[in-house]
């Protein structure tokens, strides 16, 4: 049978018919039926008159009034109940019941939000009057008494007295534990007081079990509890079921509509999907609003919609209506004056205050917005939106500290509030404190991390995974990039790339400023190709772009201004790959903007460093003209100072022209100009370095002190100026404080990616004799910043390897130094005198080093190469000391003297070393040959000895094999004898039987003796029977023993063991035979008389004989085992 979807499933069809029609009996016995479903079509006065005329009972009046109330005709319902109270035929109890029903109608008004305050006042008055009547009237029925308590409890709920309401409900439940209304009220009080949704859910489920048709429907409460317990599907199912059972259930429709709004905002897969869902929800909301224009929830949802449409006037009208329904006054200026409002009403008023504050915030009235937000927070301290709005209002009106405190307080109670985390991150980022900036990074990174995972799904394969990400504000990425650009350029660039990716994912254009910043970072990281691509994308976005001011005005000049900066950046990057293209770009910029001197300066600079373009004289005239037009511009003045320093001497300028110009800049224009300060400091360093001799030490120290002061001043102006720090390090190094200078240079290396840093590090490390690390820095400078053909760096490497070779006494290092120096010589295009001398110097060092080596470590080839190199070095020195050389590296006399020393002394030493080495090698080879021969002889002797040992072993093994064969044969022989002995024993047993039969024929005395003897004989035979399977050798030993009557038995056994060990018994043992041993007596002993058997020691103690025999067997086994081994 198919399940019914209406209430008839629970109350049956008869019950459903009873709800639809009311049968009123008449005195004549007739019945008048009233159609309750269409009762609103009838005049209430007619029905009232009919019920009064028929003097119908209170139940008929209540049923009719309830029918009107369910159809929303509350006024008609009130009129009917009042008419019933005016009737005189009701008793006291019936009157109480009607008055209680009137109270419930007042509650109905309040629940629908219609003049809520006045109806609650009237309900409270009626409850007080009825309470006194019930208490004073002992005849009050249980129903009216329960109704009185329920009314008091509900009034307590409306007033926010949840503890009082809970106490009353518990009192009712003690009387009737199945009172569904009390259970519903208890659940409501529990939710109001503690938000204990799990416990409340159990109460609602208990009501549903007791009476599934209860009104109000417990499924509404079940749905609410499930929703807040994160079981949204179950909540929707509960509300849908409630709506199936009662299609007019307005609360169920409201809850479902809110759930659909939630899904539209959080589970829409696309913009089109969202629009469809949102419009559907709005249409349903409009229908609900028409059904009840006073519901505060519906009005607040409508207010949010009109707020999104910027229709602030309508928003205020809706909020006024909500406030008036709750308080009876539509004044919005002071919401917190209504102190008697319940907790629910306070929450609704708090929402009204929040929306009013948002309206004022959007209008720019931040002071009034702050006031409304504060009132909303006072009404509901859990209103997180009001707290966020308050913080934003405080920030926008300049109270940054107050805003910070507000957002921090939000995080203390809501640690994962994304808006508060983001707002704090932005506020901290704008402060100068280093600690605050670190907090800004932590908050913004946490904001991004939490936004990417809202906890709804953890699996990337989940269909809802893409819905679990909260949209991230673009400003979060940009702010993080800005915070990182001074400490971690890679991380700053990564956040800009994430910003680009985020904008593309939502289908929006990336701001050209982001592309420009990425290009600048790529340029700084020397990724010039990537920089060009980003600058080009930024330029492309200018085509057809329109920029608006905050007021909505079109900024006409902004696109052209942006294009100038972007084009300059593009050309600046292009210089490194296509200088001519860059020059054309700069020239086109000057045509569009003739006064853009930055482009002009780049053209002049490129002309200075290239062989094409303007001559130095033309450049001088251009820069002087530019200086006249922009005399106060520090960029122009810096370039002029650089030009005067590098080209002043060629152009005939005064020797101190650059110094005077930089001083003029500091005195006349800007005393904090970093470039001028650095230039002067560098000049002082050069002057100090050029001073030689002890007489000028004081002056030299003064120059260094001035340079230090200037570098320090630059660092006070710009504490991150690495050029000033590097100059300071050089001053320390020049003054023999290498450790301090080295520490500074290492710090600079971490922040400045420049070749000068690595070269200076190499110089300092050479001075402190850390040649390996110095070589590493030189090689880094050579490979990272050059094409590997820089003559100067190759010369530095040759010098460092030479010093390392001298320090570590390594010929390999000398050869490496010579290779680098020769590379520098081959690549140089100018004068080669200094490099020639360097090569000859290293060759002299190699020659001298080899002569000092122990003869065992020399190699003839190394010596031959050294002799060749020394001859080349002598020729080089002679060439450098000749008259043809105009700029020798050292005085010619010293060069000649060194050449003579090499040819007269060092060359002879090398020749002698070569002879000594060859003799030593020959001697060593002779010794090795002799040792080899001796070793061979020893090896042969060992082989012969080993062969003799093997032969001896083979002979021994052959002898042992023969012995084993003999033993095997003997063992077989003994086995055969043992089998023969077994046959002999059988014959003896037959003889014994005959002997016993003869004895039985004798006298009594002999019988007794023979009986005794027989028993002994049998015992002995039994024992000998157990030893039948013995070796023949043991039999012979026993016969020998028994034939000697003079010796005791025990001595005989010990002697036998000894004889076996000395005699041939060893062969038997070595055979490994382990057959069980037995002994038997010869026939002659058996023929002796009984007395002789009794007197013979052999038959004395049978037990002792057995033990001794077993001892003998074990000894024999051990002997055999030893021999077998």
TrEMBL record:
Compositional bias ranges of the Acidic residues kind: 984-1001, 1031-1045, 1089-1109
Keywords: Repeat, TPR repeat
UniProt key word Repeat: yes
InterPro entries documented for this protein: Ctr9, TPR-like_helical_dom_sf, TPR_rpt
Keyword Lyase: no
SMART domains in alphabetical order: TPR
Listed Basic and acidic residues bias regions: 1110-1120
Assigned GO CC terms: Cdc73/Paf1 complex
TPR repeats: 216-249
Region (Disordered): 968-1125
Any one GO MF annotation of this record: RNA polymerase II complex binding
Bias type Basic residues, positions: 1006-1026
Pfam families hit by this protein: TPR_16 (PF13432), TPR_8 (PF13181)
GO biological process, one term: transcription elongation by RNA polymerase II
Protein name: CTR9
Naturally occurring in which organism (per UniProt): Candida theae
């Amino acid at each position: 049978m198919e399940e019914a979807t209406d209430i008839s499933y629970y109350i049956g069809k008869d019950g459903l018919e009873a709800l639809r029609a009311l049968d009123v009996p008449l005195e004549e016995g007739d019945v008048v039926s009233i159609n309750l479903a269409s009762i609103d079509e009838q005049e209430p006065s007619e029905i009232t008159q009919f019920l009064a005329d028929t003097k119908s009972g209170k139940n008929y009046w209540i049923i009719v009034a309830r029918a009107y109330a369910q159809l929303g005709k509350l006024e008609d319902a009130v009129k009917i109940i009042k008419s019933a109270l005016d009737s005189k035929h009701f008793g006291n109890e019936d009157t109480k019941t009607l008055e209680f029903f009137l109270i419930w109608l007042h509650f109905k008004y309040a629940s629908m939000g219609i003049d809520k305050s006045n109806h609650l006042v009237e309900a409270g008055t009626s409850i007080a009057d009825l309470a006194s009547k019930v208490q004073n009237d002992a005849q009050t029925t249980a129903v009216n008494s329960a109704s009185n308590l329920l009314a008091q409890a509900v009034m307590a709920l409306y007033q926010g007295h949840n503890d009082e309401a809970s106490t009353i409900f518990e009192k009712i439940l003690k009387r009737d534990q199945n009172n569904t209304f009390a259970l519903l009220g208890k659940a409501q009080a529990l939710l109001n007081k503690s938000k204990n949704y799990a416990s409340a859910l159990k109460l609602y489920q208990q009501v549903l079990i007791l009476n599934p048709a209860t009104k109000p429907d417990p499924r509404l409460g079940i749905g609410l509890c499930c929703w807040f317990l994160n079981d949204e599907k179950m909540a929707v199912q509960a509300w849908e079921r409630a709506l199936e059972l009662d299609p007019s259930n307005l609360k169920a429709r409201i809850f479902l509509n809110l759930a659909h709004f939630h899904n539209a905002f959080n589970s829409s897969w696309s913009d089109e999907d969202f629009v469809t869902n949102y419009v559907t929800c709005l249409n349903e909301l409009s229908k609900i609003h028409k059904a009840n224009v006073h519901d505060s929830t519906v009005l607040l949802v409508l207010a949010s919609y009109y707020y999104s449409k910027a229709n602030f006037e309508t928003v205020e009208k809706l909020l006024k209506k909500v406030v008036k329904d709750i308080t009876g006054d539509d004044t919005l200026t002071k919401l917190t004056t209504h102190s008697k409002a319940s907790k629910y009403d306070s929450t609704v008023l708090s929402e009204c205050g929040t929306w009013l504050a948002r309206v004022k915030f959007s209008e720019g009235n931040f002071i009034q917005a702050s006031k409304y937000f504060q009132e909303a927070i006072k009404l509901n301290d859990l209103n997180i939106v009001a707290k966020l709005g308050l913080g934003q209002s405080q920030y926008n009106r300049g109270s940054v500290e107050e805003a910070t405190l507000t957002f921090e307080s939000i995080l203390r109670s809501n640690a994962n509030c994304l808006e508060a985390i983001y707002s704090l991150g932005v506020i901290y980022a704008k402060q100068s404190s280093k600690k605050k900036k670190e907090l800004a990074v932590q908050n913004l990174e946490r904001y991004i991390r939490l936004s990417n995972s809202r906890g709804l799904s953890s699996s990337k394969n989940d269909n809802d995974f893409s819905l679990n990400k909260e949209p991230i504000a673009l400003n979060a990425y940009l702010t993080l990039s800005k915070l990182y650009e001074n400490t971690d350029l890679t991380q700053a660039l990564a956040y800009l790339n994430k910003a680009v990716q985020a904008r593309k994912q939502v289908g929006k254009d990336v701001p050209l400023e982001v592309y420009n910043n990425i290009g600048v970072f790529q340029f700084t990281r020397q990724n010039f190709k990537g920089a060009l691509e980003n600058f080009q994308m930024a330029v492309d976005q200018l085509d057809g772009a329109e920029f608006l001011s905050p007021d909505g005005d079109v900024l006409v000049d902004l696109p052209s201004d942006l294009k100038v900066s972007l084009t300059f950046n593009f050309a600046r990057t292009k210089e490194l790959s296509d200088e001519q293209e860059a020059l054309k770009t700069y020239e086109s910029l000057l045509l569009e903007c003739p006064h853009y001197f930055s482009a002009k300066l780049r053209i002049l600079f490129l002309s200075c460093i290239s062989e094409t373009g303007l001559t130095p004289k033309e450049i001088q005239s251009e820069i002087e003209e530019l200086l006249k037009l922009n005399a106060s511009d520090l960029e122009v003045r810096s370039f002029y100072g650089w030009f005067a320093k590098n080209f002043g001497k060629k152009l005939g300028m005064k020797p101190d022209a650059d110094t005077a110009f930089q001083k003029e800049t500091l005195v006349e224009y800007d005393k904090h100009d970093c470039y001028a300060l650095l230039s002067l400091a560098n000049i002082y360093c050069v002057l100090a370095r050029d001073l030689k001799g002890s007489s000028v030490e004081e002056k030299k120290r003064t120059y260094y002190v001035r340079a230090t002061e200037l570098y320090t001043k630059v660092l006070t102006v710009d504490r991150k100026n690495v050029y000033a720090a590097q100059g300071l390090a050089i001053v320390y190094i020049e003054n023999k404080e290498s450790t301090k200078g080295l520490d500074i240079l290492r710090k600079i290396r971490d922040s400045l990616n420049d070749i000068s840093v690595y070269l200076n590090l190499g110089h300092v490390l050479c001075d402190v004799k850390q040649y390996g690390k110095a070589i590493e820095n030189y090689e880094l400078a050579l490979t990272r910043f050059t094409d590997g053909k820089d003559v100067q760096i190759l010369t530095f490497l040759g010098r460092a390897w030479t010093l390392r070779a001298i320090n570590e006494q390594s010929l390999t290092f000398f050869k490496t130094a010579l290779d680098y120096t020769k590379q520098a010589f081959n690549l140089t295009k100018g004068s080669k005198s200094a490099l020639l001398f360097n090569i000859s110097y290293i060759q002299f060092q190699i020659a001298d080093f080899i002569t000092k080596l122990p003869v065992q470590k020399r190699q003839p080839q190394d010596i031959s190469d050294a002799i060749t190199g020394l001859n080349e070095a002598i020729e080089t020195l002679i060439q450098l000391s000749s008259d043809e050389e105009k700029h020798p590296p050292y005085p010619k006399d010293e060069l000649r003297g060194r050449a003579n020393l090499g040819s007269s002394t060092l060359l002879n030493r090398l020749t002698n070393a070569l002879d000594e080495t060859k003799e030593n090698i020959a001697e060593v080879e002779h010794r090795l040959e002799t040792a080899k021969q001796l070793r061979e002889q020893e090896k042969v002797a060992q082989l012969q000895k080993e062969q003799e040992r093997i032969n001896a072993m083979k002979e021994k093994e052959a002898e042992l094999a023969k012995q084993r064969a003999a033993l095997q044969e003997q063992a077989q022989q003994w086995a055969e004898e043992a089998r023969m002995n077994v046959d002999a024993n059988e014959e003896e047993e037959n003889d014994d039987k005959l002997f016993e039969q003869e004895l039985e024929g004798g006298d009594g005395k002999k019988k007794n003796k023979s009986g005794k003897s027989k028993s002994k004989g049998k015992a002995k035979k039994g024992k000998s029977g157990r030893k039948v399977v013995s070796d023949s050798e043991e039999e012979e030993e026993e016969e020998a023993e028994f034939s000697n009557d003079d010796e005791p038995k025990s001595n005989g056994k010990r002697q036998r063991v000894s004889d076996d060990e000395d005699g041939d018994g060893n062969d038997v043992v070595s055979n490994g035979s382990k057959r069980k041993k037995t002994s038997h007596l010869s026939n002659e002993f058996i023929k002796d008389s009984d007395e002789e058997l009794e007197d013979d020691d052999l038959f004395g103690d049978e037990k002792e004989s057995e033990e001794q025999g077993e001892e003998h067997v074990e000894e024999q086994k051990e002997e055999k085992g030893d021999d077998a081994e």
